[in-house]
Amino acid sequence: MLKITEIFYSLQGESTRAGKPCVFVRLAGCNLKCKWCDTNYATDTEKANELSIIEIIDKVKTYDCNFVEITGGEPLCQTECIELTDRLLDLGYELAIETNGSLSIEKLRKDVIKIIDFKCPASGMSGYNMYENINYLTVKDELKFVVASKSDFDWSVDIINKYKLYDKVDNILFSAVASEISYSELADLILSFSNRVAKKVFRMQLQFHKIIWDDAIGR
């Protein structure tokens, strides 16, 4: 059984697949308390529905969509999440999982698209980043940094260079905490970055779902 906040069909709002139709399976619960969290409602496990893996898959099958993303909260807080990913892959789904990077991704199969949200200092959670996860990345996986300031961006660049993340994945994503830094400022930081080797994989992203739908929660 897994604790589920919601299962829904929408457009992917982030990552390199932004704009692509997607079935989202949002697991309940999280082990972090990020300052900028925009899905606090997903941390409440008491209000979550308990569903079996078969029930989850049956719900996913009701949508005519082959792309599924497992998210949270933090989905890897529930150990049964690994079995869910295995079952979905065996059924032929294109599968992504978004994780905060504080828990091991070692048991996830290589064909799962792993989107790791490295926590920057302003989030208050940067001390929880599990850098061992870098060992399990493939080029198709994606790394995300949500930045609130130039110092967050500079910290991100230091991490990228320290671990040579530009050699690990094809896409490193930057998001702006909209209440703290403007999109144009973040864009200028990316464009002015001098390391051409690293910058070739840099990509700025917006949260399309929050632009399209007025009732979406903003950062």
| Poorly predicted runs of 5 or more residues | none
Secondary-structure element string? EEEHEHEEEHEHHEH
- Shape designation: globular
Helix fraction bin: 10-25%
Oligomeric state of shown chains? single chain
Largest beta sheet: strand ordering: 3-1-2-4-5-6-7-8-9
Q: Which keywords apply here?
A:
single chain, 219 residues, alpha/beta, TIM Barrel, 9-stranded mixed sheet, 9 strands
How would you sum up this structure in a few lines?
It contains 6 helices and 9 strands; from the N terminus they run βββαβαβββαβααβα. It is α/β, with parallel strands linked by helices.
Walk me through the structure.
The chain has 219 residues and is of the alpha/beta class. It has a single domain, classed as Aldolase class I (TIM Barrel, Alpha-Beta Barrel), CATH 3.20.20.70. Helices cover 23% and strands 24% of the residues. The chain contains 6 helices and 9 strands. The chain has helices at residues 53-61, 81-90, 150-162, 183-192, 196-199, 208-212; strands at residues 2-11, 21-27, 49-51, 67-71, 94-99, 113-118, 142-147, 171-176, 202-204. A 9-stranded mixed β-sheet has the order 3-1-2-4-5-6-7-8-9. Helix 2 links the parallel strand 4 (67-71) and strand 5 (94-99).
Please outline the helices and strands.
Layout: E1 2-11, E2 21-27, E3 49-51, H1 53-61, E4 67-71, H2 81-90, E5 94-99, E6 113-118, E7 142-147, H3 150-162, E8 171-176, H4 183-192, H5 196-199, E9 202-204, H6 208-212
Parallel strand pairs: 2-4, 4-5, 5-6, 6-7, 7-8, 8-9
Antiparallel strand pairs: 1-2, 1-3
